[in-house]
Design goal:
Elements lengths: L29 E7 L2 E13 L2 E10 L5 E11 L4 E10 L2 E10 L2 E8 L2 E8 L5 E2 L8 H7 L8 E6 L3 E17 L2 E13 L7 E8 L4 E6 L4 E5 H4 L4 E3 L7 E6 L4 E7 L7 E7 L10 E2 L2 E2 H11 L3 E5 L16 H15 L5 E11 L1 H12 L6 E5 L6 H14 L5 H20 L8 H7 L2 H7 L3 H6 L5 E6 L8 H11 L8 E6 L28 H14 L3
Parallel strand pairs: 9-10, 19-22, 19-23, 23-24, 24-25, 25-26
Antiparallel strand pairs: 1-2, 1-15, 2-3, 3-4, 4-5, 5-6, 6-7, 7-8, 10-11, 11-12, 11-16, 12-13, 13-14, 14-15, 17-18, 18-22, 20-21
């Protein structure tokens, strides 16, 4: 589950593979923290050694549920030209002893995998310089980090997902980024890559950060919500930034028991100005709402500042430099965080407290509605971007139906997967019915946030608001499909109280990230490249609407 292909324990190899002897300087390994769904689940220690005749990547790990893998030792040996010679992994995977030993002879990879001592052999054809990436040891990506040095967008590498198959890695972007840590700034290269996996897995986007010497700093696999970061970079005091706006100012905003880290950006003016708070979507979203290397909120903030607005964008609780914990958070909690940003902002002398708007994207649209409903007198206008109009139960099933329609499986398999997802949703909502659901699925789904999302009622939330509303929708959005925009507008126009402006703007050729695309599929995000930008029609519509809606 941790790499380009899932862990395949149906293969077996002998328990006779011996743990290699200690290496010269194994005590100076680098410590990495591993996260699943933004929560820490364990750590890995990784050492990369330059030997007289080549390279050695070696390490250990201990990862708790739901990953549940302990690696007693993992070692990959390469020659001086980074051609693999051998691999050994010895550990425990979900309670079972697993030993993998692979030897390489030119383009031949011979593997033996033992699960509970039952061995089975397998031979694969691979490239002579393939990068060896066993699923159960993320530290092996340290070799990929070295191999990426000097590579640019469009370059291809080959990787052997041991012991399953070899895949092509296509670099879609390579961007210089700065990572601010308590000890100073680290210059890094951020590589956005696509692992071209065979069906039914399909292409997988992987992000990797390396320093200027090719040392691994951070690894991120969005589709599997898995992330690994060097200990100093994983600190809440660290922040990765590839995007900035002239005049950006880092600020700290007090919330309930923790601080929210944010950036405020202002146009040049001596008079108090209208202001906008940007509220990010689901997942571990940073203040720039960076997805697949695209700083969605960074682009929106830049254009709104140019239009005369003060803009605040912030790291969600438990993300980036913001404090707080996210494992028990709900959508209502995120609305409380947005409320604290609002209360902080209205006290500033450079802000016109009667002209503050909320702009929420995806899940952020739900948060914006809740906040605006609670603070009718403090929020002057709303912009909802790609916001769902139905409860999360229906949204999840709609998303799954679309994804399954693209997979090379038959109707019976699609129906089986849909039935399982419906079972999971129902169990989360009712709190019962988990008996026939796999335990790993329950560990992922049975959370306060997922319950709050599945049961969230957008119609009710909209009915509590009274502000002018702009609804923005990309016509190629496959995560929140365009029909949701029309439904949200219906809810807004049906509200009680004085009639206020309600507008819908649909932007052709734009996906969920608000950037021009061809298909709008999530799998396309990683291929859009470093030059992908939020469509100017989006920010122009927001600026125009808010200017009119908040006129004094």
């Amino acid at each position: 589950m941790l790499s380009g292909l899932s862990v395949a324990l149906v293969l077996s190899a002998p328990a006779v593979a011996q743990t290699p002897p200690p290496l010269p300087v194994a005590d100076n390994g680098t410590q990495f923290l591993v996260f699943f769904r933004s929560q820490p689940v364990g750590r890995e220690e990784v050492v990369v050694l330059r030997m007289a005749d080549g390279w050695v990547v070696r390490g250990t790990s201990r990862l708790g549920p739901p990953i549940d893998i302990t690696t007693r030792v993992a070692e990959v040996d390469y020659d001086a030209q980074w051609r693999p010679k051998s691999l050994i992994v010895d550990g425990i995977v979900r309670g079972q002893d697993v030993t993998l030993k692979t030897t390489f002879d030119g383009t031949k990879a011979s593997s033996v995998l033992a699960v509970q001592g039952a061995p089975q052999s397998k031979t694969d054809t691979v490239s002579a310089d393939t990068i060896v990436l066993p699923n159960t040891f993320l530290g092996a990506y340290a070799a990929l980090a070295k191999r990426l040095q000097g590579k640019t967008a469009g370059a291809d590498l080959r990787a052997y997902i041991a012991p399953q198959a070899e895949v092509t890695i296509r670099i879609t972007s390579a961007v210089l980024e700065g990572i601010t840590t308590p000890k100073g700034l680290i210059q890094s290269m951020h590589y956005n890559m696509t692992f071209n996996n065979p069906p039914p897995t399909g292409d997988l986007v992987v992000n990797l950060w390396a320093d200027t010497d090719g040392n691994l700093l951070r690894l991120n696999i969005p589709a599997q919500t898995v992330e690994m970061a060097r200990e100093d970079i994983a600190s809440a005091a660290s922040r990765t930034s590839a995007f900035s706006i002239p005049g950006d100012e880092s600020v700290t905003i007090p919330a309930l028991g923790f601080n929210i880290a944010a950036t405020i950006t202002k146009p040049k003016s001596d008079a108090p100005l209208p202001a906008v708070i940007l509220i990010g979507g689901s997942g571990p979203t940073d203040r720039d709402e960076t997805v697949a290397g695209i700083p969605v909120f960074g682009h929106i903030a830049r254009d709104l500042v140019a239009a005369g607005f003060v803009v605040v964008r912030y790291d969600k609780r438990g993300v980036g430099q913001s404090g707080g914990r996210s494992e028990s958070v709900t959508i209502a909690d995120y609305a409380e965080d947005a409320r604290h940003v609002l209360l902080w902002l209205e006290k500033r002398k450079d802000v016109n407290k009667d002209r503050i708007a909320l702009v929420g994207h995806s899940e952020g649209a739900l948060v914006a509605m809740l906040t605006a409903g609670r603070e009718r007198g403090k929020v002057a206008a709303l912009t909802l971007i790609a916001g769902p109009s139905t409860n999360g139960d229906e949204v999840v099933l709609e998303q799954q139906k679309y994804i399954l329609s693209k997979m090379p499986i038959d109707e019976a398999q699609r129906a089986e997967k849909q039935a399982l997802q419906q079972k999971i949703n129902t169990a989360v909502i009712k709190g019962t019915g988990w008996a026939d659901i796999p335990e790993p699925a329950r560990r992922i789904a049975d959370t306060p946030w997922f319950y709050s999302f599945l049961t969230f009622n957008p119609a009710k939330a909209m009915n509590e608001t009274r502000q002018p509303v702009l609804i923005v929708q990309g016509e190629l959005d496959t995560q929140v499909q365009p029909h949701h925009a029309d439904k949200l507008a219906e809810f807004a126009r049906a509200r009680k109280g004085p009639k206020v402006a309600v507008e819908v703007v649909k932007v052709p050729g734009v996906n969920h990230l608000l950037v021009p695309a061809k298909t709008g599929d999530v799998t396309e995000y990683g291929t859009l490249g470093p030059d992908a930008k939020v469509a100017p029609q989006v920010t122009a519509a927001i600026a125009s609407f808010l200017t009119k809606a908040m006129q004094e």
